[in-house]
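Schema walk-through. Below, the input block comes first and the output block second. Nothing else is stored per chain. Lengths vary across the set, and this one has 274 residues.
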Amino acid sequence: MKFSYKYKKPINKNNKFIENFFIKKGLKLLVDLSKKKKPSVNQMVVNEPYIPELDDLYNLYQYILINKRTTILEFGSGWSTLIFSLALNELSNKFFNEVKQLRRNNPFELFVVENEKKYLNITKNRILKFNKYLKIKKPIKIKYFLSDVEMTTFENRICTQYKKLPLCNPDFIYLDGPTQFKAKKDINGISTRHKDMMPMVCDILKFEYFYTPGTIIICDGRGVNTKFLKDHFKRNWKYINDKNNDQHIFCLNDPVLEKLNKLQLEYDKKNKLD
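--- output ---
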């Protein structure tokens, strides 16, 4: 069946609009924290949580809402984890009964893979505090996975992989981890731990054929790693380089697989948030 999935891209907004958006959501703390001094672009190793970048977080929130995602897989953790949880919670409140009719075994669930225990604990505690502060009665399920990262090869190319991945089939993947400096072992003496190397993860490629048409992948920066993914994907992915937001977006544009996949794509299109 011929098919072309048109994912929706958030409309760029000015800083004032974005700040007001988060304030109305009860997230003024993010606005205040975003005004703190950010690490230098040349500071490659950072030992404290990153300052929230409001424009990035706003775009991620909108990507989830306007494309009505049901299951998110996040590589790396941070402020984005909070944003994903809040966006999924908003969708769950409106569409949970409808999504139950689709073949989604993890409806409105977030899977987070992190290789540093320190940051995973920070993220967990942050989510709990905000759920309490925002008085969220039924927060969505978040499943956290702590996994080492090691050097490996994919089709004879040197890269990294997580040793353990969650069992899920997401319709949205966010690639913002791991740090290149924590990969264990080496391949023929090569490791990403050297400062002149770049992040080069291959995990997304290893279960590419399980993704359903309409799946969206966003890489936060990581231009070289994005090129690696693009060169090794086997299916029909639409690719957009969003230079304004330093994001690389892939959308799986394969033909519809079967009836349930078609129903999910119809759900994506027909329902609108008020």
